[in-house]
From TrEMBL:
InterPro entries named in the record: Cys/Met-Metab_PyrdxlP-dep_enz, PyrdxlP-dep_Trfase, PyrdxlP-dep_Trfase_major, PyrdxlP-dep_Trfase_small
One Gene Ontology biological process: transsulfuration
Pathway annotation: Amino-acid biosynthesis; L-cysteine biosynthesis; L-cysteine from L-homocysteine and L-serine: step 2/2
Gene3D superfamilies: Aspartate Aminotransferase, domain 1 (3.90.1150.10), Type I PLP-dependent aspartate aminotransferase-like (Major domain) (3.40.640.10)
The UniProt record lists the keyword Amino-acid biosynthesis: yes
Record's protein name: cystathionine gamma-lyase
Length: 400
């Protein structure tokens, strides 16, 4: 995506994205009454013609019409063959990890969503899985961390909350050269299918917390996996059904509705996100800003090479410490102090005390998830109101 206000991203936005978001999987002819908006079937079970002879669905844990619609729509946005949706992003993470067995090794980033870190460290490791957490921005670290027993490489790019960017193509190429069957998983929650296509860069699985941008209305918790390989899809579908971690019909209906405006929302998130990042970067009460679309970002060149734009996510260090950060977060009026991200409304988060409190303190210290780090999810309100709000809150941060 390239215009005079935006970084010169080298990947093209899919010109058919909006049409797919609105029509893929939604053909009215599949319904008895030709519903233009896919209906919600709240039934748990389906009448059969004869034993195991049915119209496509037998029990809603195994499959449901609106879930099928949503899964087809998401797969199409990713130009992929398959998608599976789950009760949350973390349920999608759980499903992915269920592909492994005791003794298997996972290489993952040291900076990632706190809940993923907690799941790997405190739950999955109890079942004999080993995790090596590294800074994925340096390919050499990945090369050194991969072992003969490595089965999975897990990436977030940009990372949550430090906005680090990894070279997805280089990492996937190295992992697959090392051993063909190493699975490369990319959590694409921050970028969405609109701005980044990890499967096209060599990933095997794309993971989403649909609770964020993809739904975009901060009213559903859901996750998804997107896959091209059919045997891998079959294994994951078996896990989805066997573990019972699928999404509910009503939630699928809402996410399917939210997806219809994803392309419209993402353009606004990008515009506002960049405007806020540029404003903060020149502000005397800000130490530094992390937004991959800024030329000052250490991996800016990789970012513009592998994506077609940026979401409204950014983090910054406010000058001072916990007191200044707290005063800032209590002074915001248009931004709201709350966990989560990716909705139409602007949110501010204090990672050390909120979303990343479960990351061990010594690790937070090493990563610089410090008391003066603030993460913003810039929404689609009017740009000047967002900037005026940040300006007054920054001024309030130094008023004792
Ligand atoms: C990057 C990322 N991945 C995964 C998750 C987990 O998603 P969920 O909250 O839907 O379980 C989150 C949640 O904040 C996230 O930010």
């Amino acid at each position: 995506m390239a215009d005079d206000k935006n970084p010169q991203c080298q990947q093209k936005i899919d010109p058919h994205f909006g049409t797919k978001a609105i029509h893929a999987g939604q053909n009215p002819d599949q319904w008895t009454f030709k519903d233009v908006v896919p209906p919600i079937a709240l039934t748990t079970t389906y009448k059969q013609y004869g034993p195991n002879d049915h119209a496509g669905f037998e029990y809603t844990r195994c499959g449901n019409p609106i879930r099928k619609v949503l899964q087809e729509c998401i797969a199409s946005l990713e130009d992929a063959k398959h998608c599976l949706t789950y009760a949350s992003g973390l349920a999608a993470t759980t499903a992915t990890i269920q592909l492994l067995k005791a003794g298997d090794h996972v290489v993952c980033g040291d900076d990632m969503y706190g809940g993923t870190n907690r799941y790997f460290r405190n739950i999955a490791s109890k079942f004999g899985l080993k995790f090596t957490m590294i800074d994925m921005t340096d390919l050499k670290n990945v090369e050194n961390a991969i072992l003969p027993e490595t089965k999975l490489v897990w990436l977030e790019s940009p990372t949550n909350p430090l906005m680090r960017v990894s070279d997805l193509k280089a990492i996937a190429t190295f992992a697959h050269k090392f051993r063909e069957d190493i699975l490369v998983v990319v959590d694409n929650t921050f970028q969405t299918a609109y701005f980044q296509k990890p499967l096209q860069l060599g990933a095997d699985i794309v993971l989403y917390s649909l609770s964020k941008y993809m739904n975009g209305h901060s009213d559903v918790i859901m996750g998804a996996l997107v896959i091209n390989d059919t045997p891998l899809f079959d294994s994951l579908a078996y896990i989805q059904n066997s573990c019972g971690i699928m999404s509910s019909p009503f939630d699928c209906y809402l996410v399917n509705r939210g997806l219809k405006t994803l392309h419209v929302r993402m353009k606004e998130h990008m515009r506002n996100g960049l405007a806020v990042a540029r404003f903060l970067e020149q502000h005397p009460l800000v130490e530094s800003v992390m937004h991959p679309g800024l030329p000052s970002h250490p991996q800016h060149a990789v970012a513009v090479r592998q994506c077609s734009g940026f979401s409204g996510m950014l983090s910054f260090y406010i000058k001072g410490g916990l007191d200044e950060a707290t005063r800032f977060l209590q002074a915001i009026r248009v931004f709201c102090l709350a966990e989560s991200l990716g909705g139409f409304e602007s949110l501010a988060d204090h990672p050390a005390l909120m979303t990343h409190a479960s990351v061990p303190p010594e690790e937070r210290k090493a990563l610089r998830i410090s008391d003066n780090l603030i993460r913003l999810s810039v929404g689609i309100e009017s740009e000047e109101d967002l900037i005026a709000d940040l300006d007054q809150a920054l001024k309030a941060s130094v008023q004792k």
